[in-house]
Amino acid sequence: MTTPTAGFDSSWLAAQKVAEQAAALGRDVVLARDLLGRSSLLIDDMQQKLASDSSELTALRARFIKATQPFTGVEPVQTARSMFAPELFFAAPELTEVSPRADGVGRICTLERTVVGTDWLQHGDDDASGTPASRRDRRVALYGFKGGVGRSTATAVLARYLADLGRCVLVVDLDLESPGVSNLLSDEAGRPRHGIVDHLVEAAVGNADNLELVGRASLLNYDSNGEVFLAPACGLPLEGQPYTYLSKLNRIYTDLPATGDDASPRPFAVRLEQAVAACEDQVERLARRPDHVLLDSRAGIHDIAAVTLTRLSGLALLFAVDNPSTWEGYRMLLSEWQRRPDRARELRERIRIVGAMFHSAGDTERLGTLRRNAYDLFVDTLYNLPDEDEPEPFYSPNGQVDDAPYAAIPILFGNDLVGLDPLRSRRWPDLPFVEAAYSKFTTTVERLLPEPHEDA
Fold first, then answer.
1. Quick check: bond before 70 cis, omega within 30?
2. Strands across the sheet with 168-174, in order?
3. What is the DSSP secondary-structure string of 133-182?
4. In 3D, which of 283, 55, 334, 344 has the Cα closest to residue 294?
5. Which tens digit of pLDDT belongs to each residue from 276-334?
6. CA nearest 363: which of 428, 429, 408?
């Protein structure tokens, strides 16, 4: 019989148990994991020095190395006094608190050094440059764990619907690797010279003040004094000017250090917030303050989606097709939030599931099944948290709209929607099959939005 080899997940779990033992001795600890998944235990001994040859530290180091192999860090156990700059770890903004200090037990935090993914657990107000509530509440994220569920088309239809109500709407194309909504909203005549990627690159060197980031959506017609502006992912440069989108895209995810004595570091989340805010400010200068900002997010588990859902938006619409891969994907995502009950409670109040691509208006049985699956997902992840006593009830199984996040908002699907070409039919949102498909979606989402600005 062979002995099972410890793997990535089991090593991390074992490291957490040793961290709990260390915290039980009264000191704060940080469990850090590097890019290769190797973990190190950092002990805060600034208040009371812990000698490197003490029996406590020696025993702890031996237990930690044995428990975490082969994912043991280069320096498995370190104390704050032995580190050159302990504040980079014990006061890092990316810290995730696992358990607070209590009754002689130290605080336990984790610190993930990853390529992507740390923003899924961050607070929107973790940094002084975070998104103000006044802006965030007017932003709606449209997100799908899987692509091809009609998210960008729904964004365009919702924008047009709100404009018909007289609202000023800004659509931001945050699907930077696969821009799509821009082509539904504007032809070349309506494209600005620069896009979100340009702002991220130019702002990194302080050169973003004169960028043209937004343009009026030239492919939408509406029947009132409403307006739709588009902030595309990439710009449309003047003829003859060079434009290398991929070279810019490869550089936008960098966290930037502070550049002055009073300046703060600019992680990617803050830089993306500043790009979206710059677009909002341009719309206000050109017309009026946007009543609603629709963020067409990148799909999948990606940093753009993490920042968009957790920091930038007041309402997050999660598009779902009722199949196992969809629920498995969302379960992976929501399980991350489950690790932070306070975060899970906050986020579940801002989420709504959108049931995408239903084949007929009368398919309430399938809608009920989707809602049941969504309910099971939410109960397993974002409800019935360890510190909650009352179980979440399941209600309205017949598909009627209510305000529970798992109460899916349906979008119907028809073959006519496939291959819709907005350039050939500029009034495509007026087509009967489009209105029939999206009427429940648009009216329900409009009900969830804040009132328009009074000075409109």
1. yes
2. 215-216, 227-231, 168-174, 292-297, 139-144, 315-320, 351-358, 409-412
3. HHHHTTEEEEEESSS-SSHHHHHHHHHHHHHHTT-EEEEEEE-TTS--HH
4. 283
5. 999 999 999 999 999 999 999 988 878 788 888 888 999 999 999 888 988 998 888 88
6. 408
Q: What is the pTM of this model?
A: 0.77
Residue 360's Cβ-count burial label (10 Å; 0-12, 13-18, 19+) is exposed
CB-based contact 317:299 (threshold 8 Å): no
- 3-class state of residue 82 by DSSP: helix
Quick one: DSSP state of residue 409?
Answer: E
Phi, psi of 18 (to 5 degrees): -70, -35
The one-letter amino acid code at 160 reads R
The Cα 262–Cα 296 span in angstroms is 34
- Residue with tokens 């935090």, as numbered in its chain: 109
Asked if 39 and 33 count as a contact pair (C-beta separation under 8 A), the reply is yes
Convert the pLDDT of each residue in 179-227 to its tens digit.
889 888 988 888 999 999 999 999 988 899 999 999 999 888 877 889 9
- Name every residue whose Cβ is closer than 8 Å to that of residue 44 and which is 6 or more positions away in sequence: 27, 28, 29, 30, 79, 80, 86, 90, 106
Strand partners, 79: 43
Q: Give burial (CB, 10 Å; 0-12/13-18/19+) of 378.
A: buried
Structure tokens at 288: 């009026």
**pLDDT above 70 (res 5):** no
The set of residues, in sequence order, having a beta carbon less than 8 Å from that of 102 and lying 6+ positions away, is none
